[in-house]
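User: Now give one protein:

AI:
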Amino acid sequence: METREASPAHFLIKIDSFCLLEKCGIDKYETKEFAAGGYNWKLIIYPNGDDNVGKDCSDYVSVHLAMGPTSSLPANWEVNVVFSIFLFNQISANYLSSLGITRRFLEMKSQWGLSKFISKKILLDPSNGYLVDDKCVFGAEVFVIKKEAVTECLYLKDVDIPYKHDFKISNFSKLQAAWESEKFSAGDQDWNICLYPKGNGKGAGRYVSIFLHCIEPKNTVKACFTIWVKNQISDEHDEGTATNWFSASTSTLGWPSFVEIATINDPKKGFIVNDSCLLDIEISVLAVSQ
């Protein structure tokens, strides 16, 4: 329980002659309906505790929040709310309040509340300020949780065998702009490789740039990949390895400075033989976020 200055946003009920409720045989009082969050609600006040909960509530005042008529609601309806119950302190001019209670209201359970909202001993003592001249004020706030949450599902993949593919780039010396591989599929996603023989971005003019491109990503994909420029006369291949997330906003990742242009074009280095370059890729899709 806590106290606050602001009045309840949705409902207040003033009860005159509270102590006469028991004398008049009123063990349960249902307030008029009030609207909040697009639904109708009411408070149910048990001045001698809710007998349905147990005999140990007889020394307390129970207060429940209940939905109004639900016949107009669709089948299998549910309403999720955060609600608070209030009691006005007439001496300090603030409200005793239950902390926000989150509950799901259903056809089979259309009311929730506090079986021990306040002890009768505290309430009936005028010096506490809750019952003055036998008058008290209860209140309620009800905030409906709208189903507008953005959902995401992360699928993790245990990849034992990565996807592998090799490419042959013929007439390498005649390439002017970018070379793009044929598309291939890995992890239910289409990919291709882009190679810039004259460099791209920071690598322009000095390096060959190589990038892996995720074609029209359906989801956000995390992939681990290695690209090799194969050395055709030795095992000294040039390679790059990276692990990154690919998405619609970041669909291309790689290396602006993969290998120096002078190195790849040097016949003694073995990367270009008969004007052909060999490119290999190994890729594993590790996770998919939807």
